[in-house]
Amino acid sequence: MNGEIESLVDTLSDSIARKGFETEMQSFVQMFSRYQSDKARGITLDWDKIRPAPAEQTVSYASLFREADSKNLKKLAVLKVNGGLGTSMGMKGAKSALEVKNGLTFLDLTVQQVQHLNTRMSIDVPLILMTSFKTYTETVEVIKKYANQPLRILTFNQSRYPRVFEDTMLPCPKTAEDDNRAWYPPGHGDLYASLFRSGVLDQLLSDGKEYLFVSNSDNLGAVVDPKILQHMIESESEFLMEVTNKTKGDLKGGTLVDYDGSLRLLELGQVPLKNVDDFKSIFNFRILNTNNLWINLKALKRVLDKEGLDLDIIEKHRYLDHGKPVIQLETAAGSAIKHFKKAHGVIVPRRRFLPVKNCADLLLVKSDIYKIENGHLIPNDHRPFQTTPTIKLSDDFKSIEQFQARFKTIPSIAELDHLTITGDVHFGRACELRGTVIVAATEGQRIDIPDGSVLENRLLAGYLNTIEL
C-alpha cells in the first residue's frame, strides 16, 4: 500500500497541493495499517464485554438548572458537520442548502441561531463548517450571501481518502485527481485531525475559545444550550455526548456502552452479525447518540499532541458503478469519548434531536407542527399532543423531486396521529389531516386529494375509495 500511495502523491506537481495531499495520505496509511494489523491479529469486538452505559456515566438534562453566562459563552465555538450530499433523498448537492421551512435552508437556520445568540448575549461565537470534497465548492459559494452579516464563518475541508478494491486491497485511484467516485470522506470522526491539520484548532485557541459544540447540519434540534455548557464547566468534563431515548425509528443508531470498564460509542457497523438483533433491542440499549458533542478544545489539543486519537474503525462495503466491490474505512466523532477525562453522556429531550434523513422527516418539519423563532424550530402551541405524529411514505416520495411534485402545499397535520401514504398519491392545496390517515394507491392508479380536503380517521384505497377508521 505504501508504494501505491507514494505513486499517488507523485502525480501532483504543485508543491503546496502536494504537501497537503501527502499529509492526508499519511493519515490514511496510518488508519489502513491499523485496520490490517487488527485483522491479522484477530482483534474484534468482544460482545460479551459490552454492557449498557451505567447510570453514573450519564446525567439527565432535567437535573441541569444553571445556565452559562456571557463570560463562558464567549469561550464557545459552534461546528456543523457539513459534508453530506443527501443522497438518500435523491440530492446531488450539499444537503445543508436544502430549503426546509419558510424558504430557509438548514444553513440559513443555523446562521440565524448563532446570530441571535451573539446579539442577545453581546458575544462573538463563530460558526465553523466542516465540508467534504463533495460539498466544499457549493458551500463556499452559498456562504457568500452572509458576507455582510455580523457573524464569523470559518470553513475547512475534511480528508479525502482513497477507496480500496476488496480483492487486491489496493487503492482505486491511479492519480490524485482521479474521478471523485474513487474517493470518499472518512466519516465525521475525521473532524479532529482535519480541524488540527487545517489550522482552525490553533486559531480558535488563540482567539480564546475553549469549548466546541459539534452537531450534524441536518439536525434542526441541535442548538446551543447554555445549561449543557455550564454543566460541562462545573463537572470539569472534557467531552460530553448528548444522548436521547431510543424509539422504534432509531434501532440502527449508535449508543453509549460500557466496554470492559470503559465508556465507548458502539455503532451498528461494529456489531458482529449474530448480535445485530441484540444491538437493535430497545430493552438492551435504551439511549441513542445524537452526535451533538461538546468538546474541551484545550483537552483536544493535548490529546492530539501527546496521545493521538485511535478512533474505532468502521469497515464499510460499497460498489463502484461497474459493480466492483470496494472498502472504505470510516470513524465516528463520538468514538473519541474514550480519550477524554470525565467524559459522559447527557440524556436530553427529543426536541434536541430532529434530524431530516428522509422526506417523511422533511414533511414533519415543513408542516404546522413547528414554527421558527430566531432560527429555532419550536413546537406550535396549537397541537393538542406532546408527541409528534408518525409519518410513513413509500418510495414514491423518496426523492426531493418526487416529494415536491406530490404536494402542492404541505397539509396541516396539527391534529394528526399517524399518516401512511403508498403509491402515486398527490395532494392539493390547503388540505388537513387528522387522527389516523392511510392513503394507498394501487399499482398503476393515481389518487388526487382535492384542494381543501379534510381527512380525519380515513383510509383511501385503490382509485379513490374512502373508508372511515
TrEMBL record:
Transmembrane feature ranges: none
Protein name: UTP--glucose-1-phosphate uridylyltransferase
Keywords (A to Z) from UniProt: Nucleotidyltransferase, Transferase
GO terms, biological process: UDP-alpha-D-glucose metabolic process
Domain of life from the UniProt record: Eukaryota
Record carries keyword Transferase: yes
Entry binding sites for UTP: K95, Q158, G187, D218, K357
Family as reported in the entry's similarity comment: Belongs to the UDPGP type 1 family.
Species this chain originates from: Gymnopus androsaceus JB14
Binding annotation for substrate: H188
EC code(s) of this entry: 2.7.7.9
General function of this protein: Plays a central role as a glucosyl donor in cellular metabolic pathways.
InterPro entries, A to Z: Nucleotide-diphossugar_trans, UDPGP_fam, UDPGP_trans
One Pfam family cited in the UniProt record for this chain: UDPGP
